[in-house]
Amino acid sequence: QVQLVESGGGLVQAGGSLRLSCAATGRTFSGYVMGWFRRAPGKERDFVAVIWWSGGGEYYADSVKGRFTISRDKAKNTVDLQMNSLKPEDTAVYYCAADSRITRVTMRRFVEYDFWGQGTQVTVSS
């Protein structure tokens, strides 16, 4: 069974940086798509970034493009999200997600992902 465990959240001032990490276990992830989503209080779970485990590209929400970078380490089975120039509106619980059936059409839809981590809180103070 796929298990995803996030780490690296915390409190940071606006303009600062954080690096989130998602440890993925339970199977080999060749063919999987790994994503990061976030949910701010009172809002839906929003797409942040996604990467194809076996290569083939990475994609970002417009709101984080140029500030966030998603990467994966095949040797460690981790997917990281480097977040720079953080803004108060980036405050949310961040979730790691995985699925083997994601396409470029469905990659932004959280309902398409079967496997989720427990989430990690990111708080950006102004």
Task: Record the SSE blueprint.
Blueprint: E1 3-7, E2 10-13, E3 18-25, E4 33-39, E5 45-52, E6 58-60, E7 68-73, E8 78-83, E9 92-99, E10 115-116, E11 120-125
Parallel strand pairs: 2-11
Antiparallel strand pairs: 1-3, 3-8, 4-5, 4-9, 5-6, 7-8, 9-10, 9-11
Describe the structure.
The chain has no helices and eleven strands. Helices cover 0% and strands 50% of the residues. Strands 2, 4, 5, 6, 9, 10 and 11 form a seven-stranded mixed β-sheet that branches. Strands 1-3-8-7 form a four-stranded antiparallel β-sheet, with no helix packed on it. It has 126 residues and is mostly beta strands.
Q: What portion of residues is helical?
A: under 10%
Radius of gyration from the alpha-carbon trace, in angstroms: 13 Å
Main beta sheet strand tally, sense and closure: 7 strands, mixed
Can you count the helices?
0
Q: Roughly what is the average pLDDT, rounded to an integer?
A: 96
Q: Hey, roughly how much beta strand do the residues contain? A: over 45%
Oligomeric status: single chain
Low-confidence stretches: none
